[in-house]
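<context>
A single protein, sequence plus fold
<sample>
Here is the protein in question:
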Amino acid sequence: MHPQHGAFVITPQKVDGSGILIGKQNRFPVEPSREEWNVIQVDKASAVSFLQQNNSVFGSIATTSATHIPHDQTDIWPFYIIPKLDSWASANERVIILGDAAHVIPSSAGQGINQAFVDVYMLALLSGLSQENKRIERATAMKFWQEYRQSRINGVMELNKQIDARRLPVGDESGRELRDKKFELDWLYNVDFEAVVKTWIDEQEVK
């Protein structure tokens, strides 16, 4: 991490260390068109140049790892955010979507597959426990599930913004507050989803 140049990411891809992934993030002030993205994707020389520039500020390991980059192994990974969906289920709740189909999450926080797992886990818990209580309508249970999961996804998206603000090169002062903000992760990792579902079920029985 560098306060002016953002982050240099280096990640082993093989156990013996013979293959690594290196990456850096960059902000596009104006979103490229589809045609412009096509040009950017095939411009491997520019991609390699970007990965190699200013690496001395990250230390010798960063400089050495980016010295010889095969052009045919470079790629560009655009980060996009899709609008929130009104519903994750069909009108009759016969079809339910989850994971990336319901809420695509950029990979900054490494939470994409994790949140998909939680979608499935909570849905299974909710379906099983609500079936035991015949007073709870399926539509009501699905509404709670989506609203609760969306609130968690919103938190992950805010975490992504905070991580991206630290990884991206400093271009202006708009991201300073996010860059300086302390990471708070208890809400993400210290949660008992079974207890959340059981509490909600109990609340419905009281109503």
Summary: DSSP finds eight helices and two strands in the chain. The first helix runs from residue 34 to 42. The mean pLDDT is 89. The beta strands are 9-12, 20-23.
